[in-house]
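Propose amino acids for all 124 sites.
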């Protein structure tokens, strides 16, 4: 089980946390027949390892947009992607906001989730 200890140890040995996460619930119907996005709940996540994606990470990305900056986050806690009305989690890393687009469950390899975030804010 070399993989088990290697993946699990990444979260602690490369910890950059705590990082702040904004999590919004599903949109709520308002009195005018539209939908409002609820105020996000903000919490910190620790431990968390992070790095900006480069090279093969971007080549293996399934999405067509390879121009946006991406970062990978290794956590012990699941991060949400936009699905079934649930808004995607947004992580603030190095002063920039990354919206989670993919989360992979590596639970058998040591209770680790690997999530990919796409940069939301563009620096001018």
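Proposal:
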């Amino acid at each position: 089980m070399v993989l088990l200890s290697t993946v699990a140890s990444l979260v602690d040995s490369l910890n950059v946390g705590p990082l702040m996460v904004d999590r919004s619930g599903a949109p709520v119907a308002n009195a005018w027949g539209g939908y409002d996005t609820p105020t996000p709940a903000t919490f910190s996540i620790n431990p968390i390892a992070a790095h900006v994606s480069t090279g093969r990470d971007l080549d293996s990305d399934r999405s067509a947009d390879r121009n946006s900056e991406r970062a990978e986050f290794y956590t012990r806690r699941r991060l949400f992607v936009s699905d079934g009305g649930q808004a995607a989690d947004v992580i603030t890393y190095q002063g920039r906001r990354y919206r989670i687009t993919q989360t992979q469950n590596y639970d058998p390899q040591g209770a680790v989730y690997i999530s990919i975030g796409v940069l939301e804010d563009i620096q001018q």
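The chain has a mean pLDDT of 79. The radius of gyration is 16 Å.
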